[in-house]
Amino acid sequence: MQRQHETNKGRCGVCGDAYDDVKPLFIPPSGTFATGIVGRCYLAGTRYLSATVQLTSSHLGYFDFRLCVNNDFQKPVTQDCLDKTVLQIEDPDGVRIGTQYNITNFRPITLELQVLLPPGIRCTQCVLQWRYVAGNNWGCEGSGQKKRCGLGLGPQETFVNCADIAILESCTY
After folding, report:
1. Which of 51, 88, 126, 140 is most buried, judging by how many CB atoms fall within 10 Å of its CB?
2. HEC states along the chain?
3. pTM of the prediction?
4. pLDDT per residue over 58-75, tens digit each?
5. At the topology level of CATH, where does 38-168 sit?
């Protein structure tokens, strides 16, 4: 929290590293975990991907999914690219939740969700980002008469992860 909000002004690295890391582990070309391996290929026209989110320790808050068409394993993905495509989420019954899934209690939970893929996207390398913004810290927002304080307000801990996927006419891997 201190590094994220005091040192880095609330910013996170795009795939889980600290924003100010000199040599990020998750960003190509030199990142230890940026291996150039596509985790899964989806056929073009696939409506959604299945996502399992397991929170062993709930921190309230919300999570979302974003997608960047990168098509170059040597090119670092940017948050600006990911922010262009914030994905819609559906529950297993097909009920549209929106772009954020809110965690409303402190119980551990495993969620099976459908994350909608935008039509027309093709990529040999898309970066899928999962971001969890916690809501379990007490803080304040606003000032003067509009100042509000409470649980989930003000700076919150953020967890980020990425995976390389492909969306192609034919998947051979």
Report:
1. 126
2. CHHHHHHCCCCECCCCCECCCCCCCCCCCCCCCCCCCCCEEEECCCCEEEEEEEECCCCCCEEEEEEEECCCCCCCCCHHHHHCCECCEECCCCCEEECCEECCCCCCEEEEEEEECCCCCCEEEEEEEEEEECCCCEEEECCHHHCEEEECCCCCCEEEEEEEEEEECCCCC
3. 0.89
4. 999 999 999 999 999 989
5. Immunoglobulin-like (2.60.40)
